[in-house]
Amino acid sequence: MLYYLSQFGSLLQGVQIGKMLNVFQYISFRALCAGLTSFLICLMFGDALIRRLVELKLGQPIRSAEEVHRLNELHGGKRGTPTMGGILLIAAVLLSTLLWARPDNPFVWVCIVTVLALGAIGFYDDWLKVTKKSSAGISSRLKFLLQCVLAAGITAFFLLSPSLAKQAQQLYIPFMKGPVLSLGIFWTYIFYLLIIVGSSNAVNLTDGLDGLASGCTVMAGICFGVFTYLAGNSKAALYLQIPYYGFSGELAVVSLALAGAALGFLWWNCHPAKVFMGDTGSLAIGGLLGVLAICCKQELMLAIVGGVFVAEALSVILQVASFKLTGKRIFKMSPLHHHFELSGWKENTVTVRFWIMAIVFGLLGIATLKLR
Question: What b/e sequence results for 147-174 when a residue is b if at least 16 CB atoms lie within 10 Å of its CB, and e otherwise?
Answer without folding.
Answer: beebbeebbebbbeeeebeeebbebbeb
